[in-house]
């Protein structure tokens, strides 16, 4: 009896046991979800960061040398190169620049070419005689005029080299940068003057002075930009050698003492308008 009952249960369960593996094979296999894609982090846009090199043109005006030549209108052009390194933090741009220029910011008195340059030179007299044509009376008269503030003697003053090392701080509006700048200026000066009091000065030297100003740069493309800048170089002195005049009874003429003296050319501030074109190499 028990045997028959077990046989009946086995017969009933056999189809279930045989079909279970096939049913399990039909079930979907669990797979874990794919990881989310890692998106690249977008770099901050820094169009003004990097190295820049370019050319610079300068026009200086309203310069003065008030001690040896007493010239009041030094002006003229210069051309040179500029290099800078800049870092951008948000919209703020920090930078350092060096530039060097060559040309002639100059003025003169008493030569033929000065005849119609301005009223002061007409009053002083164009094409003035050189000191070797002065007599004792002329030297005395020129000295008296000098002490009264009338400078009727031949003279030239020129700045022919200019170098600046500056720091910049600016704010960028996309491809426009507005900035202020300041640093140190180095100028090479030449003097040629027949000063009746200090003597004959034909010398040159370097002077150092603070410079400051500001400007606007505009990026035409990602790599090329244009800019305009105002720069003011404050006053500076340059030491010069001078030979005083003396009266020579032979021929009733004026000549020079053999010993030289040290005198200072005193340049007042010079205003400069500068334009530049630069090529930008980005550094991120």
Key traits:
284 residues, Porin, 3 helices, rod-shaped, alpha+beta, 15% helix, single chain
Mind sketching the topology for me?
Elements: H1 2-26, E1 50-65, E2 71-89, E3 92-109, H2 119-124, H3 136-147, E4 155-173, E5 176-195, E6 199-219, E7 224-233, E8 236-248, E9 253-267, E10 270-282
Antiparallel strand pairs: 1-2, 1-10, 2-3, 3-4, 4-5, 5-6, 6-7, 6-8, 7-10, 8-9
Any overview of this molecule?
- By secondary structure, the protein is of the alpha+beta class.
- The chain has a single domain, classed as Porin (Beta Barrel), CATH 2.40.160.
- The protein is built from three helices and ten strands, in the order αβββααβββββββ.
- It has an eight-stranded antiparallel beta barrel with strand order 1-2-3-4-5-6-7-10.
Q: What is the percentage of strand-forming residues? A: over 45%
Radius of gyration: 41 Å
CATH architecture: Beta Barrel
What structural category arises from helix and sheet content? alpha+beta
Highest CATH level, the class: Mainly Beta
Largest sheet: 8 strands, antiparallel, barrel
Helical segment count: 3
Number of strands: 10
Helix content: 10-25%
Summarize the structure.
With 284 residues, the chain is α+β, with helices and mostly antiparallel strands. It has one domain (50-282): Porin (Beta Barrel), CATH 2.40.160. The chain is built from 3 helices and 10 strands, in the order αβββααβββββββ.
